Amino acid sequence: MARRYDVVREGFMVKRSQNKKRYTPVNFKQRFFQLTTKALTYYDNDIFEKRKEKGRINLETVHTVEVALETTFAEENTITIHYPFLVGYEECGQDYTLYLNAHSELERLEWIKCLRNVCASNKLKDKYHQGVWTGKRWACCKESSRNSIGCVNCISRTFVSSHIADESDHNKENFNQGAQSSPIMPGGGATPGTPSAKLKEKSMIRPKVVVALYNYKAIETGDLSLEKNAEYEVIDDSQEHWWKVRDNHGNTGFIPSNYVKEKELIGLQQYEWYVHDMSRQRSESLLKHEDKEGCFVVRNSSTKGLYTLSLYTKVPHPHVKHYHIKQNSRAEFYLSEKHCCSSIPDLINYHKHNSGGLASRLKTSPCDRPAPATAGLSHDKWEIDPHELMLHDELGSGQFGVVRRGKWRGSIDVAVKMMKEGTMSEDDFIEEAKVMTKLQHTNLVQLYGVCSKNRPIFIVTEYMRHGSLLNYLRKHEQSLSSNQGLLLDMCIQICKGMAYLERHNYIHRDLAARNCLVGSENIVKVADFGLARYVLDDQYTSSGGTKFPIKWAPPEVLNYTRFSSKSDIWAYGVLMWEVFTCGKMPYGRLKNTEVVERVQKGIILEKPKGCYKEVFDIMRKCWSPSPEQRPSFRNLKDQLVNVSQGILVD
Ligand code: ADP
């Protein structure tokens, strides 16, 4: 089984049977594919614990990764085959071809790119057959020798890229169907005249061209400003979070990699109205907050690969309507069957001029949406000069000291935690901070850096305007308690952040609602991860201490102080309970010793009032006495999404 951090890409695709045995009929099956740096493996499903391996290709044997001919597939079967590609490889001296069908042009492109990247050092073939081997001849050129070298030139021969798709969310993009991307065509590539084309002519190497998704103002020397929608050529993408790029005036510098998207993959992300994987609940809050008739967004539906239009109307009363964007058999998109368009942007354009059965014509979409935090305030920067920080009001105070709102170099909002002297082992933490600035996820509070030269040391993080989740839940109890969907969405967001930490083998050790923060557009993020390790106070670190988070601790932590991602899972269950009670104290007024007694006996928290049974069942799984029986965050996230699909309409 692949280790999580080895996984380059995974997802469902339809696979054509390989016909290794001569007389078995051709069939097409949906399989879950996982690409690591070693192999392409396919399974019967995606549930980690249950899946069975159905086949595997050792990547060292791969010699071809190319687009396949659509027509030859379509003739064979009634299922829709639109985006076929093939992987040629050798096994026991015999050539085989695996034919795969992606769900969209962009998905195919990403798979091909990832496969070619992981096979970059392989000796690739010059020619290949685009069609299938029918048993008698090649469907493309009608050649009757199975071993003939191929009828079309491979384009992978000229493909070189240093970038291997990683697991961070912005790289693991969804399949922006219908977006106006350039399809991969044999021999195709850059548009003449672009910087990309010039370089290609020179060296036959296709450089990566990215498009800015947000404006970015370079503050530190060596960085480069980005202008939304402008194109940049990537010079160096060897670091995960800061890439060196060149603009079209020839200026070069570092930019945050989460502010750009590869041109070929940009898809819907170039449009103001596309909000990516924003949930139904968050899109409702956003549109209600805008309060404009006809204000709309398009978001990824909770059903993978589909899109939903969320539209605000005041008629007959202010509310948000959600419409699935459907596709007909000709792969056209529609909201009402009478008005079909070849792409989603075309469809949106149509409904901007005609309501066509919608509650309102599409008029505006929310603008000035916040740009994401960057991993550190510049490339390789984690030490922050305190003179560059302007400190404003106090946001709160915790056991480490006071937290104040601030601005870095007069332009970036930050929160500054001023660590009380003697509360933490500072040198160790400062070392760790260098690593922590590199952890980046939409649902983690970004660590920007530290001011470590003076005392007290400052920890500088992303500013979250609505403060701690615990206070937020308590303050908005009235409106939140009647909106189970919103509560579930908060849990899913936290789970996504935790799944990222789990993937990076990072243990939080103090996960609780008080350590999560709420930002604009109801985004929820996990804060203070890993900090507990550097606390010097015995009362906090020892399970007998008065400040130890006993109520969030599983038996193995209480008994042996054994922390793991699975102890985080237990705490996460308690956090879910806090969310669904809108901030009640777990175990009420019970003393710590009484809580320990209960937990040892296996007595768990009660189902919060109004909480769905399915949701409580998930909490209970987090409280399995043995850590091995608890699910992983990755698995938990899928379960939560399934529950939200089951009990809520998307
Ligand atoms: P604790 O030590 O209890 O975990 P913290 O020291 O992290 O608390 O923070 C104390 C309070 O300061 C929080 O409850 C929150 O209201 C506020 N706060 C902390 N970090 C931020 C931030 N990044 N953005 C906005 N408010 C924050």
TrEMBL record:
Protein name, entry field: Tyrosine-protein kinase
Species assigned in the record: Nicrophorus vespilloides
Domain SH3 as annotated: residue spans: 205-265
Record: residues binding ATP: K417
Annotated transmembrane regions: none
InterPro entries: Kinase-like_dom_sf, Non-receptor_tyrosine_kinases, PH-like_dom_sf, PH_domain, Prot_kinase_dom, Protein_kinase_ATP_BS, Ser-Thr/Tyr_kinase_cat_dom, SH2
UniProt record similarity statement: Belongs to the protein kinase superfamily. Tyr protein kinase family.
Organism placement in taxonomy: Eukaryota, Metazoa, Ecdysozoa, Arthropoda, Hexapoda
UniProt KW Zinc keyword: yes
UniProt superkingdom: Eukaryota
